[in-house]
Write a structure and sequence with these properties.
The structure holds 2 protein chains of 2 kinds. Chain A contains 14 helices and 2 strands; from the N terminus they run ααββαααααααααααα. Chain B has a domain of 173 residues: MetI-like fold. In chain B, 75% of the residues lie in helices and 0% in strands. The longest helix of chain B is centred in the C-terminal third of the chain and has 36 residues. The radius of gyration of chain B is 23 Å and the shape is globular. The chains are: A mainly alpha, B mainly alpha. At the A-B interface, helix 2, helix 4, helix 5, helix 6 and helix 8 of A face helix 1, helix 4, helix 5, helix 6 and helix 7 of B. Chain A: Pfam families: BPD_transp_1 (PF00528). Chain A: It is a multi-pass membrane protein.
């Protein structure tokens, strides 16, 4: 006999017959269990997120070194940083490499996404192969690129020599070393960003293109006047992601100098993240490093705000 | 419809993109399979040689590299973090998506806000001091624990659960007398399996490739694989065939995962992007 054929009253009384202990337990289950389920995240955040953030702020106001001497310093660490040429050089390096890497990367990713959006065979295989760089480890790839850019036997210099260009010491000078590192970043992230753009492009309704095409807009015009403006939300996501990643750049320039945070003999490719690492874990100047970490955060906020405003303007006026 | 057909230019561009994506990995294989004098030869040798096995044995048995330990440690760290993050995220995602409780929206917004802070760079000094005072430096715990904090996982699983587990299903299970955890196990988990796969692959890759924090908190005697490569690169920077054999070994597990789950990875990335 199924439940449905029982008289309603019987069914309800059957439910009310549960022992009181079980009812109490189920009320606790409904009321308290949700908090128990979300609590691991907040406990972890308190321990490994909030605590380190707060203590970074605290350390940054003290003279705090390995020997354990802790002295109130007020804003001394910050004012010393603002007068530290090495710190400013790291800021300029970071921003320079960020621009050198991000501008071509965004343009390439957009065009690649546009190409990937066409109909062709082996679609999945092609999408997977542009994502391949993402699954390789940053350190492994940086090792390979460092060899490709080696002065005496690197492939890049060999190709240049075919055109009569003398071997270049990519690591020794500022702009060349930035270019080398920017290519590592771009190799890794262009395909990923293209796939994200592609996802955004596929949400654009087809009627928009049909309407544009009836109005006589060429394919190129459709890209500029339909695709780009409609892609703005995706672009904001991609650009903010790249801003955080680019301004905290660490692994590639570290590996380019064989795991040394100096960033070249003159610090020509030392990033702010490397500066923080060096001050904390080689100079053991924890207060100074913590202040630098907060300034790095400030740099990210400024970068994110500028890029956000910039992207919002793209295609916005048309 | 003609506008979706690829032109010659598109085909050339896609071809180039594939070549550029694959070339550094091909090059890694070329150098890893040759002798060191071949690696620095001019003109460069473009085809793989026959020394791959020999170079791999050399790097695995290198007394200062600790490469076997590195591979094992990376596997342990990545697996433990991946399984834990999946459990934590599916539980919380279920609560945020399907359960009613006071403060739910506020807590979810808090999770999203915490995602925006680059904690790894910001909190690195106190986190290191914490590990020192717990005497955890040099141990895998020190690498694993901070990474259990994963806001992205909560966000992803909340979205995924919201869309694949209807509220009626949860309520029906409740009427049948199922407790919350039982519903999670019997109703939610089977429905969100694809989302778990995306999160799992993503987390495993991030952990396998992580560099800065293990570099700070571990040492060359007990490294992860990235730290083992870093050590080789720092001390034998021109022993290319040795180092390249190591890098090849370090990316093989990821490439295997990628080939096996490529469809889910591409699909998951594209879906996640649209929702974000």
């Amino acid at each position: 006999m199924s439940l449905d054929t029982l008289p309603r009253a019987t069914r309800n009384s059957h439910r009310r017959d549960r022992p009181p202990g079980r009812r109490w337990r189920s009320r606790v289950d409904v009321k308290a269990m949700p908090y128990a389920l979300v609590s691991p995240y907040f406990i972890l955040f308190a321990a490994f997120g909030l605590f380190p953030l707060a203590f970074t702020l605290y350390y940054s106001l003290y003279d705090y070194d390995l020997a354990g001497t802790v002295e109130w310093a007020g804003l001394d660490n910050y004012s010393a940083l603002l007068g530290d040429d090495d710190f400013w050089r790291a800021v300029v390096n970071t921003v320079g490499m960020f621009i050198l890497a991000t501008v071509p990367q965004m343009i390439l990713a957009l065009f690649l996404a546009n190409a990937l959006n066409k109909r062709f065979r082996l679609r999945l295989a092609i999408r997977m192969s542009v994502l391949l760089p993402l699954v390789t480890s940053v350190v492994a790839v940086a090792v390979v690129f460092t060899q490709l850019y080696a002065r005496d036997w690197g492939l890049v210099n060999w190709i240049l020599s075919l055109f009569g260009v003398d071997p270049y010491n990519w690591r020794a000078e500022r702009i060349p070393s930035w270019i080398a590192i920017a290519t590592m970043v771009d190799w890794r992230w262009t395909g990923y960003n293209a796939i994200i753009f592609l996802a955004g492009m596929q949400t654009i309704p087809r009627d928009l293109y049909e309407a544009a095409s009836i109005d006589g807009a060429s394919r190129r015009r459709q890209f500029w006047q339909v695709t780009l403006p409609m892609l703005r939300p995706t672009m904001i996501f991609v650009v903010l992601n790249s801003t955080i990643g680019g301004l905290t750049l660490f692994s590639e320039p570290m590996t380019f100098y064989n795991g040394n945070p100096d960033g070249g003999s003159q610090g020509q490719f030392q990033t702010v993240a490397m500066f923080v690492y060096k001050e904390a874990f080689r100079e053991f100047d924890y207060g100074y490093a913590s202040a630098a970490a907060w300034l790095l955060f400030l740099l990210i906020l400024i970068g994110a705000a500028i890029n956000f405003l910039f992207v919002r303007r793209i295609g916005g006026t048309k | 419809m003609t506008i979706w057909k690829p032109t010659v230019l598109t085909r050339v561009m896609l071809g180039l993109a594939i070549i550029v994506s694959a070339f550094p990995l091909y090059w890694m294989l070329v150098i890893a399979s040759r002798t060191n004098s071949d690696a620095v030869a001019t003109p460069p040798k473009f085809l793989p040689g026959g020394n791959l096995g020999q170079n791999i044995i050399a790097v695995l048995t290198h007394p200062e590299a600790q490469f076997v330990a590195g591979l094992t440690n990376s596997f342990i760290v990545a697996s433990v973090v991946t399984v834990s993050v999946i459990i934590i995220s599916t539980l919380a995602g279920f609560a945020f998506a399907n359960l009613n409780f006071r403060g739910r929206n506020l807590l979810l917004v808090l999770v999203l806000l915490t995602m925006a802070v680059p904690l790894q760079q910001m909190g690195v000094v106190p986190l290191y001091r914490l590990m020192v005072s717990l005497e955890w430096t040099g141990t895998l715990k020190a690498v694993i624990l901070p990474y259990l904090l994963n806001g992205f996982g909560i966000f992803l699983m909340t979205q995924y659960t919201r869309q694949s587990v209807p509220m009626e299903l949860v309520e029906a299970a409740r009427v049948d007398g199922a407790a919350t955890l039982r519903i999670w196990w019997n109703v939610v988990l089977p429905a969100v399996r694809p989302g778990m796969a995306v999160l799992g692959i993503n987390t495993f890759m991030l952990m396998w490739n992580d560099y800065m924090w293990p570099l700070i908190v571990l040492n060359q005697e007990n490294p992860t694989v990235q730290i083992a490569i870093n050590g080789l690169n720092a001390r034998f920077s021109t022993e290319y065939s040795l180092i390249f054999a190591g890098t090849a070994l370090s990316i093989i597990p990821l490439v295997l995962v990628f080939v096996a789950f490529g469809r889910q990875i591409v699909g998951g990335l594209m879906e996640g992007a649209v929702k974000a």
